[in-house]
Amino acid sequence: MTTRTFKVADDKGEDRVLSWYLINDPNNKKQAELIKDAEGLYGRLFEAEYLEPYENFRKYARDSYAARKDLKVGKECKMVDSWYLGVEKGDVIAFLFFTLYPKDCLGVISYAGSKEPFYTKSIERLINEEQKDLFPSLTPEAYLFELEKVYPSEYKYLKPRYRDDPVYGNIRRRKLITYQYQKLGALKIPWIHYRQPILVRGKKFQKIDMHLMYWPSSEHRSIKLESFDRERVKKLLEFMYLTFYLDAFKATEDGNKMPYWETVLKEMYLEAVRDLPSLVASILA
C-alpha cells in the first residue's frame, strides 16, 4: 500500500506529520477502512451542491488500479487517477483526488481539502512524487483546478458587523482557499468566463461560474499570465471540457446519453471561447 509521509509546519511553526495513503483497491481491508472513515470528511470539506456520489470513488479506485497495472507492463494510458487520504494520528483529515494526462502534459485536481489549511503545503509535494513515480520522463506543464468565486457584491459581508452571519464564514473560506493556492504559485486566469458543468445524480444539470486556476509545475514556475495568448487559453478550455469532463461523464453516465452530453460540453467550450477577448495578453499589459 503506497504511503507518502510529510512534515508540515502548522500556524505556530510546529511540525505536524501527515501520512497520505493511496486508495486504489477498495477490497484491501486497510483501504476499505479509510474509505469508510473519509466519507463524513468528504461531505464536510466540500460544498454539497458540487458533490458527486461518494460511491463513484470506489469505481475510480478500481480504474486507477487497472491503469497502474497497465503502466507496469509498458502499456500506454490516456490518464491515471490518484485518490489519496491524509491521516494524522489515526484520523482521516485530508482528501485529495487528481488525474494525470501524460499525452497532454496536464493534470486536473478535482478535490483537495483538509481540516487544517496548512496541510495544503503538502499537496504539491505529493503530486510531484506521484507524477515522477508514474511517468518518470514526463514534465507536466501545469495542474488545473476550479475554485468558487467571490463576487465584488459579497465583499461587504466581510465587515466585522457580519461576523456572526453564516455568509461571512462562507465568503471568508472561499477567499482563504484562493489565497492559499496563489501563495503556492497557482495563477487565477481572470479573463475566462469559465463555468463548471455540474452533473449530480438526482439533481438538475447546472453550469456554475468558477475560477479556472492554473498551477504551473515546479519546472514551469516561471510562467506568467502575460505569456498566455488566446490560442493557449483555448487549448486549456478544450482540454477541460472536451477531454477531462467528457471522460468524467463517460465514467459515470449511461452510454446512451453520451451523444447528448458531448453536445452540451462542446457548446460550453464554444461559449467560453466566444467570451474570450481577442487579445488576451493585452489585458495585463
Uncertain segments: none
Mean model confidence by pLDDT:
86
In whole angstroms, how far apart are the ends? Answer: 49 Å
Tell how many strands the DSSP assignment holds: 9
Could you say which structural class the secondary elements and strand pairing correspond to?
A: alpha+beta
Write structural notes for this entry.
There is one protein chain. The protein is α+β, with helices and mostly antiparallel strands and 285 residues long. The protein folds into two domains: 1-140, Aminopeptidase (3-Layer(aba) Sandwich); 143-285, no CATH class. Helix content is 37%, strand content 24%. The chain has six helices and nine strands. The protein has helices spanning 29-45, 56-72, 121-134, 166-183, 230-252, 258-274; strands spanning 3-9, 15-22, 80-88, 91-101, 106-114, 142-148, 187-188, 194-198, 206-216. Strands 1, 2, 3, 4, 5, 6, 7, 8 and 9 form a nine-stranded mixed β-sheet that branches. Strand 1 and strand 2 form a beta hairpin. The longest helix is centred in the C-terminal third of the chain and has 23 residues, at 230-252. The N and C termini lie far apart (49 Å).
